[in-house]
Design brief:
The complex is a heterodimer of chains A (112) and B (113). Chain A is mainly β and 112 residues long. Chain A has no helices and ten strands. Classes of the chains: A mainly beta (112), B mainly beta (113).
């Protein structure tokens, strides 16, 4: 089955700095890579996703990059703000599967 | 638009008791999932369903049961609660198309004492 590794498990930054979270996956047939944000006491919510026909996607301060050859994808958050503090999960459903495989999550802490 | 609704939000159970965690979605999604989230351990799949009347085991199904009698509802049953089942439980759903996002409920925090 698919194996998704996510690093780091904890990331602490100062407000205004950039944050990068990386995930690697094992199934070369995977072609959809979402990122979820989980705020305290809530369920995960999609913030951005990328499909394998593009290498990068941006939405304001967040971006996701994909390297299919190396089988890794990354979440980039620029100009971090305290409200970015949350747990972030990557996912990489095996090719053609309807069961998303999640990374272990990254706890991002943004210090004011 | 309610999305995915879970009840209850919190529950304390005694060892050996049973309970049902309720999950309902109003998006007419075929796929529904139950995950548990332990501290630092990410999301582990308990059971999933691809449509009414069809369920299957995930990574950690022992101690749980599910049913899917309607498209909307996907309850999770704990028959004999054990301390190891102390966790936060999330229900999720997604539409039939493969590469689409999952929608999560707010979670149920369960403590077994």
């Amino acid at each position: 089955g698919e194996n998704v590794e996510q690093h780091p498990s904890t990331l602490s930054v100062q407000e205004g700095d950039s944050a990068v979270i990386k995930c690697t996956y094992s199934d070369s047939a995977s072609n959809y890579f979402p990122w979820y944000k989980q705020e305290l006491g809530k369920g995960p919510q999609l913030i951005i996703d990328i499909r394998s026909n593009v290498g990068e996607k941006k939405d304001q301060r967040i971006a996701v990059t994909l390297n299919k050859t190396a089988k890794h994808f990354s979440l980039h958050i620029t100009e971090t703000q305290p409200e970015d503090s949350a747990v972030y999960f990557c996912a990489a459903p095996p090719g053609g599967s309807y069961i998303p495989t999640f990374g272990r999550g990254t706890s991002l802490i943004v210090h004011p | 638009n309610a999305g995915v609704t879970q009840t209850p939000k919190f529950r304390i159970l005694k060892i050996g008791q049973s309970m049902t965690l309720q999950c309902t979605q109003d998006m007419n999604h075929n796929y529904m999932y139950w995950y548990r989230q332990d501290p630092g351990m990410g999301l582990k799949l308990i059971y999933y369903s691809v449509g009414a009347g069809i369920t299957d085991k995930g990574e950690v199904p022992n101690g749980y049961n599910v049913s899917r009698s309607t498209t909307e509802d996907f309850p999770l049953r704990l028959e004999l609660a054990a301390p190891s089942q102390t966790s936060v439980y999330f229900c999720a759903s997604r539409e039939f198309t493969v590469n689409t996002e999952a929608f999560f409920g707010q979670g149920t925090r369960l403590t077994v004492v």
